[in-house]
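User: Hi! I'm working on a homework problem where we have to compare a predicted structure to a textbook description. Could you give me the structure for the chain below?
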Amino acid sequence: MMVEGLDLKLPVPASHKGDNGKVLVVGGSDLFHGAPLWALKVLSRLADMVFFASVPEVKSVIDQLKSRLWDFIYVPRENIDDYAGEADIIVYGPGMRRDVKQLKYIPGKPIDWSNTYQVLDYLSQTYSQKRWLIDAGGLQVMPIEWLARLKQVIVTPHRREFEALFKQRLTGRVDKDKEIVSQMASRHKLTILLTGRVDIIAGADGRVKLNTTGNQGMTKGGSGDVLAGLVAGLWVYNPSFTAAWAGAYLNGLAGDKLYQSCGPFYNTSDLTDKLIQVLIDEIKKD
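Assistant: Happy to help. Predicted structure tokens:
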């Protein structure tokens, strides 16, 4: 399937259960309890197995999520290592708290599962060989040095998150910012999807793409969580740069299709529902 000049791979007819990826989403909090739902809804359409670990465990939130979506496996905190070990991709950060102390993980000591920083410290050391997509709360607490631990990683920052993580000021001019983002992707050997009015996607190999799909209706909370789930789901079958570029394009295209019918007055649930139809329409073009 071709998407804007990229060969986007999708599940092959001879697939068996589990062949098309296992993804663990680590996210949620008592404050942003709905955020992981958007990523989970998209992922459940793309990956064979989707696991969700809510840290901290908020029973009322977990019960609500379980009642609204049956297409993922809820992972109790005490079993997170089992599923992290099994997963191909770990998505870290949707809905996690950012206002936490920097408590380092100390081997042999109990983990404070409510501390976004400490949990990421533990998981990124223990499962450094996995593919990682770091988003939202994860990006806002992560020291840049931790990126070197991870062998394969996509980060999905908006402007403020990018500047805080990489300690680089953006100019607001796409031609200049494209160079800055590309430099950071090459230096840290990762894929960056910088979201904005024009998305900038940069790979470790120097490739850069600009995405202009999308509109002002996508400024609503949750659209970034949808994007994180979509990119992770496409990464199951594709290289990181292809997944990030195609994810940005398709997410924005779904928003543009909605804009044609209702202007900017759509919500994140509308966006998740529209995405699948957009993907089907793109497949039919081939």
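For your comparison, note the following. Residues 240-262 form the longest helix (23 residues). The chain is about 45% helix and 15% strand. Good luck with the assignment!
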